[in-house]
Design goal:
- This protein has a domain at about 10-45.
- The protein is built from two helices and two strands, in the order ααββ.
- The protein has helices at about 10-25, 25-30, and strands spanning about 35-40, 40-45.
- Strands 1-2 form a two-stranded antiparallel ribbon.
- Strand 1 and strand 2 (about 40-45) form a beta hairpin.
Length: about 60
């Protein structure tokens, strides 16, 4: 089972994640109708089942 994170990102981390999200909107269309987890470096997990995501890294 995937490890859940219980920490709140800092203001700077939030800004970096928002920048990544805005830059990657076209790329995210590939994951339409799926749950995704991401950070400022990219998608860290995705899948149709929130409890059993398949791991996927984007460069």
């Amino acid at each position: 089972m995937a490890k859940l994170m219980n920490t709140t990102p800092s203001k700077d981390e939030n800004q970096e994640m928002l920048k990544w999200l805005n830059r990657s909107r076209e790329q995210l269309k590939e994951y339409a109708h799926q749950y995704i987890a991401y950070n400022s470096n990219g998608i860290i997990a995705h899948g149709s089942d929130l409890h059993q995501p398949s791991l996927c890294r984007l460069g």
